[in-house]
C-alpha cells in the first residue's frame, strides 16, 4: 500500500507566487482544461483550489453587502456560479480518474522519487486508498472467497486498465519548443523531430507532449 505523500520537502524549497484574482481564475481554468483532456491523472493543483475557494467566499461576502437591483450584482453572481462550476467540474474529473485507474495511480505514488511532486492531494490520496480497500473487500466477499484457494487473489494492476497515453490530444503552445521527438505511426515510418511555435495548435499523441503539459509549456484544448 502506498504511503502518505510527503510534501514538506517540495514546499520548503519552493517560493510563494502571488497571483491576482484574474490570474488565479485563469490558472484554475487551465488546470480544468488540462485535466479534462489528458488521459492520465495530472499533478494536483490543491493550492490553486484552496485559493479559489477563499476567493469565492470573499466574492460571496461582497455580494451580500451589495445593494439589490444593481445590474453589476447580477453579473458578479453569474461569475461566482461560473467559477464554482469550473471548480466542481475539475474536482469531479479528478475523482473519476482516480476511480478508474486507482491501482496505477497508487503504484505511481508509491514509486515516485523523493522530492518529486505528488499527483494526489492528501484528501485524494485518502480517497484512493479507501476506494482500493473497498474494491478488494467487494471482490473478496462477492467472488474470491467462493473460489479455490489458489484463485483467491487478484492483481488489480493487471485487472484494471491503464490510462491510454497513446491517445491523441489537441494543444496550444504557450512557449516555443524545439526538437520534439515524434514516434512513427506505422512500421514504414521513422521517428522525426518537430518544432512547436508559440500560439500554434496541434493534434499529437499525448505521451509525446506529456512532460510539456506538466511544465505548462503547452495547454490542452
Q: Indicate the radius of gyration in whole angstroms.
A: 21 Å
Average predicted confidence as pLDDT: 89
Span between termini:
35 Å
How many runs of DSSP E, i.e. beta strands? Answer: 5
What general outline do the C-alpha atoms trace?
A: flat
Low-confidence stretches: 7-14
Structural class label: mainly alpha
Which features characterize this protein?
5 strands; two-stranded antiparallel ribbon; mainly alpha; 3-stranded antiparallel sheet
In short:
This protein has 221 residues and is mainly α. It is built from seven helices and five strands; from the N terminus they run H-H-H-H-H-H-E-E-E-E-H-E.
Structure description:
The protein is mostly helical and 221 residues long. The protein has seven helices and five strands. Strands 4-1-5 form a three-stranded antiparallel β-sheet. A two-stranded antiparallel ribbon has the order 2-3. Helix 2 packs across helix 3, helix 3 packs antiparallel against helix 4 and helix 4 packs across helix 5. The radius of gyration is 21 Å and the shape is flat.
Topology:
Elements: H1 8-12, H2 21-37, H3 46-65, H4 71-111, H5 122-142, H6 156-159, E1 168-173, E2 177-182, E3 192-196, E4 201-205, H7 206-215, E5 218-220
Antiparallel strand pairs: 1-4, 1-5, 2-3
Helix pairs in contact: 2-3, 2-4, 3-4, 4-5
Amino acid at each position: 500500500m502506498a504511503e502518505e505523500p510527503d510534501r514538506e520537502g517540495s514546499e520548503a524549497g519552493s517560493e510563494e507566487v502571488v497571483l491576482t484574482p484574474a490570474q488565479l481564475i485563469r490558472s484554475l481554468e487551465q488546470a480544468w482544461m488540462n485535466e479534462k483532456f489528458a488521459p492520465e491523472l495530472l499533478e494536483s493543483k490543491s493550492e490553486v483550489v484552496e485559493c479559489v475557494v477563499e476567493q469565492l467566499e470573499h466574492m460571496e461576502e461582497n455580494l451580500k453587502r451589495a445593494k439589490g437591483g444593481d445590474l453589476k450584482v447580477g453579473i458578479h453572481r453569474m461569475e461566482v456560479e461560473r467559477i464554482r462550476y469550473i471548480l466542481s467540474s475539475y474536482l469531479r474529473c479528478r475523482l473519476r480518474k482516480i476511480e478508474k485507474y486507482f491501482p496505477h495511480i497508487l503504484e505511481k505514488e508509491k514509486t515516485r522519487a523523493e522530492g518529486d511532486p505528488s499527483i494526489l492531494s492528501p484528501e485524494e490520496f485518502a480517497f484512493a486508498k479507501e476506494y482500493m480497500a473497498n474494491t478488494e473487500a467487494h471482490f473478496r466477499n462477492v467472488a474470491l472467497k467462493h473460489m479455490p484457494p489458489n484463485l483467491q487473489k487478484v492483481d488489480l494492476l493487471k485487472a484494471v486498465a491503464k490510462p491510454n497515453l497513446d491517445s491523441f490530444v489537441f494543444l496550444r503552445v504557450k512557449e516555443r519548443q524545439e526538437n520534439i521527438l515524434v514516434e512513427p505511426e506505422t512500421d514504414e515510418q521513422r521517428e522525426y523531430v518537430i518544432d512547436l511555435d508559440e500560439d500554434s495548435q496541434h493534434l499529437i499523441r499525448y505521451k509525446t507532449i506529456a512532460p510539456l503539459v506538466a511544465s505548462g509549456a503547452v495547454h490542452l484544448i
